[in-house]
Amino acid sequence: MTIRNETPHDERIVEELTKKAFWNVNVPGCSEHYLAHVLRKHPDFVPELNLVLEEDGCIIANVMYTKSKLIGETGAEKQILTFGPLSVLPEFQRKGYGKMLLEESFRRAVALGFDAIVIFGNPENYASRGFKSCKKYNVCIANGLFPTAMLVKELQEGALQGQSWTYMESNAYEIDESEAEEFDRDFPPLPKEYRASQELFYLYSHSQVL
What is the pTM of this model? Predict the structure, then answer.
């Protein structure tokens, strides 16, 4: 097993595995492979943290990071990280590969000088990796709400203590769904189907912590 930085040669392979990893999970179909495609060109993208995991020479997982920021009570800005997509081929999921990839990315993020990560994700997937509810760190979104799916991890203990924060996500994640559909036409077709995981995604993404 090897964890290394993505190379230009890997890009299409990563996009294909990202489609397979996310297809029908959150919604019928997916657009995460298009997101992976456009993230690489965005100024907030962190290429040092664009990592792939190989087993027996085959890429089976990938994680991508962007820079985002927190605005403190005094108006001061703090640069932090956001990751996503985190993709693992379906046949390798629930076997610890995503955990290994994330832990290595955390180590590299600390080496780059970052001390906190904020993501939107399923709490069941990330609580075991040290992520906690945004409410526990007083990190809200611009309207003062604490989304259930917004999770925070301190890479350095105490990095966010002492004040309240407002999370400002990079606009790198604002993609055009029609462009995503056009991009997908260049990939092998897969059927769009309903799964129970889509209802869980809806519940987590439309609820808040009071």
Answer: 0.96
